[in-house]
């Protein structure tokens, strides 16, 4: 019997190795990977540069001494994230919360859904996919996942939101009382609305996601669950910043229209805190990978905020010791035209043809094809602010992001700043939970592969 077993084992081993490798070590082949430039991004090839002030720090801050550092290659948004792009995030969160509440109410109501082709018969059409009340039954029984009883990760509820049925927004088309109850929860009370408008309660637009302090987890060598936490962030921009940032100043039109009106679709989003920008990055990764999963493709790397050294390297556009993204040392070209949107001429905001912000793709891009790396809106980066951080930075991908330091670096200057803050080496900060009418952000994504490949001719 042992002899028979040995023969079978040998045959099985030979069969498993019969893939044409001739007994050689060829490695395990994963999914085929092709680098794909994300839409709206540009590739910033890695390299070294002199980080910090190339001349005297005229503000006397003494917080940016020069230091030669190297950063790896990455993709970066060509423009600041616009109102239109951020609004997509807000709408997704809003719709997810509404569908979640509708599904929960449908579970209480019971019964199967009857909506077909986008038509809704009752709230039951919004039941969770995978639940007993959803339209996923076969032969009158809810379908089970094969071998589900063996998996410790199997969720018996398998509650997935149903995106196949359109949300009904018109009150005279609500299908039943349960639907009315859920939708009424999402709007402000009547005594908080005015001008005959029915306004949604945007404080309910909350995005939840998990983060892990990878640096702390790697250094502790302990249970990584101790370093994972759930973040919940209100995602709607703080539109009141247009009023609160400026005392005794009439900016109500910007408060009322800037984020939601189509006229400002291509303008950079503002009123977004560092925490909200981080949540947006997580959602953008989720959105992209959800599509790729449906197509059976490999996941993309995460979208994130740039670290401070990446931002400065990208802003310089390959020009060593430049004062501004276009070189410098002046903020005007040879025709006397301003090269960015800022506060020139001792406070003449409109001298550069813009009183507030301008469209994200305005002025000339730098040599990395990045727009408005100086002026328009300052930008959040994924680094904590410290006066002496340059003194203990690593020279490779230098970054300091202390979770206990709530002061986060902002770079690039804005429409309301003087030229000093437009310099590629100037540093400023704001608190992570604060939002301003002059701070926005753009995202980056790590380039996967050898940086040397970027310099090779195509094959």
Automatic annotation (TrEMBL):
Sulfatase-modifying factor enzyme-like domain location:
40-94, 238-444
> Does the record's keyword annotation contain Lipoprotein?
yes
Q: Which Pfam families match?
A: FGE-sulfatase
**Which key words are in the record?**
Lipoprotein
Is the keyword Lipoprotein assigned to this protein?
Answer: yes
User: Known NCBIfam families for this protein?
Assistant: GldK
Name of the protein = Gliding motility lipoprotein GldK
Give the species this sequence originates from. Answer: Mesonia sediminis
